Amino acid sequence: MALSFPRPHRVDVRIAVGSVLAGLAWWGLGLDMQTDRQLGGDWALIPLFVLASLELLRRSRPQTALVVGTLALFADQFTAGNLASVVIFTDLMYAAVVYGTPAAARRIPVTTGLITVAVTIGFLAWLREPEAVLIGVVTGLVSFAPATTGVLVRTHREAAVAARLRAEQTALLAEMDRVQAITAERARMARELHDMVANHLSAIAIHSTAALSLNDPKTTKDALAVIRENSVEGLAEMRRLIGILRDSSEDREPTAAPTLDGLGALIGNARTNGLDVTLDDTRAPDASKLPAPVELAAYRIIQESLTNALKHASPGLVTVALTQRRHALEVRVTSPYGSPSGPRAPGSGAGLVGMRERTELLGGTFESGPESAADGKVWAVDATLPVDPSDLDPADEGVTE
């Protein structure tokens, strides 16, 4: 099977051509590194061309190039020698560490270091002259020095690659966080928009349908009054929300979030829209103040439940119940379940999704669906909103266990 070699890098081609030209110039000047060899200066060209051709494999086959180059350098010792051949061999040693396998990069410096020490000790024992140390120094310069240089370069390259990967991962994580933040903000805005406006628009849709379907001047007048009231309030809510979205300054005063203290007004508005609503608040008047996120979630859940009752519930009593315990606030809203006798507004299911999201963001539980009751079926919405006792005011009277 024929061996296939990848196309050499253009830099390696330049190195090979430059090495050949330098070696030929050295040979043409008649400069010999060793004058007491049996083979003349012309024989030194063979190892030169072999080593120069191996430069084409310094990236693709670095270990093969090093093994063959070592044999070529050994053969060069029997000729007059060429300085270019030695320089080429040092580059092959360097490339074997930089471009070779991790195992080779660890093994080659250790091997060349041991060879350098062995050569130094061996020639000292053989020649018994201090000049024998120079042979060891040359051996180290030809083998151990380029190998250690390759280790340093490879280490810096791997560190640079690792730093680049970390930077890319950090940028990717930052982008993921940005996308998640945008998604969460959009979901929050969608919930706020739905909760603030859906109630008013549902009332407008139902009463306008009633005004159009019934030929009664008094009913039409009452319906138009409710429509006007809800349209004005809905427009005000929309303007407030648009103002919040437009104003991105950091010194903007925070807007007041609705709390459970506003339940009376909320239920009064629901009654104005035609719902028969009763509030069963078992919390004591001096009960602890709940955290703002819990109060906002409870208010929005009640608001959306009343909106759904206005759109879908049968005639009958709608009950809102609040129970505050030490570790949670329980919200329950029930409305008659069945086919409504009057006009109804279409629904998309976004309200239930928003209520579930609000509850899950606080780590609570949410359930909704039809239930059997003493006076027939009801649609029940149950939300349990966890409360950390450490977030409560010191005066925790009225909080049941």
Written overview of the protein:
This protein is of the alpha+beta class. It has helices at 10-28, 45-54, 62-76, 83-99, 102-127, 132-213, 217-246, 263-272, 292-312, 350-361, and strands at 276-281, 317-324, 328-336, 365-373, 376-386. The chain folds into two domains: 10-170, no CATH class; 259-338 and 348-401, Histidine kinase-like ATPase, C-terminal domain (Heat Shock Protein 90), CATH 3.30.565. Helices cover 60% and strands 11% of the residues. It has a five-stranded mixed β-sheet with strand order 1-2-3-5-4, with helices on one face. The model is unreliable at 392-401 (pLDDT under 50).
Q: Could you provide a short overview of the structure?
A:
With 401 residues, the chain is of the alpha+beta class. Helix content is 60%, strand content 11%. The protein contains 10 helices and 5 strands.
Describe the structure using short key phrases.
rod-shaped; alpha+beta; five-stranded mixed β-sheet; 401 residues; Heat Shock Protein 90; single chain
Task: Give the SSE map.
Elements (H helix, E strand, L loop, with lengths): L9 H19 L16 H10 L7 H15 L6 H17 L2 H26 L4 H82 L3 H30 L16 H10 L3 E6 L10 H21 L4 E8 L3 E9 L13 H12 L3 E9 L2 E11 L15
Fraction of residues in H or I helices: 55-70%
Rg calculated over all Cα atoms? 43 Å
Give the number of domains: 2
Per DSSP, the total helix count is: 10
Largest sheet properties: 5 strands, mixed
Beta-strand segment tally: 5
Shape: rod-shaped
Distance between the termini: 84 Å
Question: Overall mean pLDDT score?
Answer: 80
Biggest sheet: strand arrangement: 1-2-3-5-4
Compressed to H and E, one letter per element, the order equals HHHHHHHHEHEEHEE
Low-confidence sequence ranges: 392-401
Q: What share of residues are in beta strands?
A: 5-15%
Helix/sheet category: alpha+beta
